[in-house]
Write a structure and sequence with these properties.
With about 160 residues, the protein is α+β, with helices and mostly antiparallel strands. The protein has one domain. About 35% of the residues lie in helices and about 20% in strands. The chain contains four helices and five strands. A five-stranded mixed beta sheet has the order 2-1-4-3-5, with helices on one face.
């Protein structure tokens, strides 16, 4: 009887864990986890880097994210302070994904990019600058530079002019 209760608890934990992995949303994972994607299995990676599950990308902290999306996976690695650092992490993840695709050509339709998040979408029309209340002052046609004279040339030659 005691073992039946443990079995039920284990089954419920496994079900909740499986549901959490397939729940809609995005997983925000520290960018330092990217090098580990090369040699850890998915289950080992998920255990070591569980990340934070967010339902909406608008809840992300501001910064650069290396984004990998494929089927039910949405991994956002970041936030990264500098775009150049994000480019380096993106290159590492592209290499890892490239190797995985070589081994399993059935992997297709994934999204891999560097993006500044959260994106701000507005539905309001662009702001229109108000018209000035007074017309701009017209100072006439632009003056051409004065022609240098021989006198100014001689003064500059002997160090007295500008």
């Amino acid at each position: 009887m005691k073992y039946a209760g443990l079995f039920i608890v284990g089954f419920i934990l496994a079900f909740v864990s499986a549901f959490a992995q397939t729940a809609p949303g995005i997983r925000v994972i520290e960018e330092g986890a990217i090098p580990y994607t090369r040699f850890l299995s998915k289950s080992e990676f998920d255990q070591r880097y569980p990340g934070e599950l967010l339902a909406d990308p608008s809840a992300l902290d501001s910064g650069w994210y290396v984004i990998y999306e494929h089927e039910s996976l949405s991994y956002y690695f970041g936030p990264i302070l500098l775009e150049a650092t994000g480019q380096d992490y993106l290159a590492q993840l592209e290499a890892t994904v490239g190797v995985a695709v070589e081994r399993r050509p059935s992997i297709e339709g994934y999204r891999l990019e560097l993006s500044y998040e959260p994106k701000v979408y507005t539905t309001s029309p662009p702001a229109v600058e108000p018209e000035p209340s007074e017309p701009p002052v017209d100072y006439g046609a632009p003056q051409s530079a004065p022609k240098p004279s021989i006198f100014q040339f001689l003064l500059r030659l002997f160090g007295f002019g500008r």
